[in-house]
Amino acid sequence: MQQTEKQVPLSINGLLVQKSFLEKFNISIDNFKKSGVEWPKLEKIHADYVRKMQSLLPTLNYVREQLGSAEGVHSIKARLKDPEHLIEKIIRKSIESPEKSISVENYREHVTDLIGIRVLHLFKADWIPIHDFIARQWTLAEQAEAKVRDGDDAEFIAQLEARGCAIKRTRAGYRSVHYLIESNPGKEKFLAEIQVRTLFE
């Protein structure tokens, strides 16, 4: 039986299939060309990340366990980035900034949320002890960023600023604080992105 275009798999023997991949993620051929990224390079990144995913698990588990002991935490969700979503993100980053050359050697520097952890808390004030715990426990790779909405409580925004958070104002969307931390459970340094927000967000 002949296979239709919609049945074409995203990968064959571990190699991504360009046409079906771009269709799935709604990336046009023209936009892909704008990225300047060669498909064989993306296949190498995909294969490298699939091989290395297991090595990220100790960091993910360590950070998750440590955060579980922080005051104010309601629940924690943790994940490793899906390999296909990594490739999608690299393509979109390259479309936005084609001058950046993302390769198998440096993709972990450009895509910093391979390890992603979401910390949920019940009340707005619970953010403070969680923030203080993160600041004590790890080195921040960059300044924490707080996403707030126009019209949010000025006193709460002042608390964010007092603890060194960069404020990013939006008209819509959820409120959250984002941290990029460095963790060294072994000899190698890993980055992990922590997102802190209320359960109701």
How many helices? The count is: 7
The top-level CATH class is: Alpha Beta
> Which shape, going by the Cα principal axes?
globular
Number of domains: 1
What's the main sheet like? 7 strands, mixed
Round the Cα radius of gyration to an integer and report it: 19 Å
CATH architecture: 2-Layer Sandwich
Sequence stretches where pLDDT stays below 50 over 5 or more residues = 1-9
According to DSSP, the number of beta strands is 9
Distance between the termini: 48 Å
Helix share bin: 40-55%
What series of H and E elements makes up the topology?
Answer: EEHHHEHHEHEEHEEE
What characteristics describe this protein?
two-stranded antiparallel sheet, single chain, 201 residues, seven-stranded mixed beta sheet, Beta Polymerase, domain 2, 7 helices, alpha+beta
Q: What report would you give on this structure?
A:
The chain is an alpha+beta fold. The protein has one domain (11-198): Beta Polymerase, domain 2. 40% of the residues lie in helices and 23% in strands. It is built from seven helices and nine strands; from the N terminus they run ββαααβααβαββαβββ. It has helices at residues 18-24, 29-35, 39-67, 83-96, 107-110, 127-137, 154-162, and strands at 11-12, 15-16, 75-80, 115-121, 139-140, 145-149, 166-170, 176-183, 190-198. Strands 3, 4, 5, 6, 7, 8 and 9 form a seven-stranded mixed beta sheet that branches. A two-stranded antiparallel sheet has the order 1-2. Strand 6, helix 7 and strand 7 (166-170) form a beta-alpha-beta unit. The longest helix has 29 residues, at 39-67. The radius of gyration is 19 Å and the shape is globular. Mean pLDDT is 88; it is low at 1-9.
